[in-house]
Amino acid sequence: MMNRRDFLAASSACVAMGASGLVADDADEPGIIDAHSHIWARDIKSYPLAEGMTLDDLKPPSFTTEELLELVRPHGVTRVVLIQHRPFHGVDNSYMLDSMKKYPGVFTAVACVDATQDDVTGEMTRLQKAGAGAFRITPSEDGTTPWTESDGVRAMWKHAGEHGMVICPLINPEHLPMADQMCEEYPDTSVVIDHFARIGGDGQIRESDLKNLAKLARHRHTHVKTSAFYAFGKKQAPYDDLIPMIRRLCDAYGPERLMWASDLPYQLNSDNTYPDSLALIQDRIDFLSPSDKQWLLRKTAARVYFGESDPA
Description:
The structure is a single chain. By secondary structure, this protein is of the alpha/beta class. It has one domain (4-10, 30-304): Alpha-Beta Barrel (TIM Barrel), CATH 3.20.20. Helix content is 36%, strand content 13%. It has an eight-stranded parallel sheet with strand order 1-2-3-4-5-6-7-8. Helix 2 links the parallel strand 1 (32-37) and strand 2. Helix 1 (4-17) packs across helix 2 and helix 8 packs parallel to helix 9 (243-253). The radius of gyration is 18 Å and the shape is globular.
């Protein structure tokens, strides 16, 4: 098993191998989809860092598409949903877009835009045409203005619902009522809640938080990522303490609206590995049928992010 230390030690060798052997000839064959990974580049001339960031701020120092593919391919992962890492690259989504062009069919992307800009919906349309039809938002998307009072955020939700885009909230449990209200007001908008809405981030999985997340299941276009296991509950493999939360969400949403994701590269640290994350879904949850696992590990993400109406 490879942890972050092992991975970083091997990174230079991975890059030296080049991209020629990484193109996914099997991208059309059913395989696992990792529904959440960040990437970033040290080529800041081509891909500028966000204001105030320097190369010294990148942790780990490098996590390129080539390094990502070298890590996930041995575990049966054939496709990945790339998530713009706004702290590092701001709203310049070009590295993800270029990666999609370089490896057609392997990646899709969740972009970031500036909700305070007048033409935010025009930028969403441009990015959708470039292959990034999903958009990450946070509670601070419009400064301290709540989503419910932000013209820009409301425009994003409305535009997404009208044009087949996906809104991907990165929120904490206290923001679930606000997300619920937006889902209520924009029922045609597809929504994917990242990382269990960060329930259990302080080590405590509270019933009130689970109740609020399960409540969103009444919105038929809302989904949840069962992801970033390293960050919740005991924060250590094998993550069995997260199984009751996953069961609660399966009961509320059904496996067809849940998707597994790693949150690379942050899943990699001294106590957690990439295989650890996969193993929780593949091997440790006895109430998941083989069909359920197919939905969590591939089919939900294929439908929501890759646009497959009838995923294999």
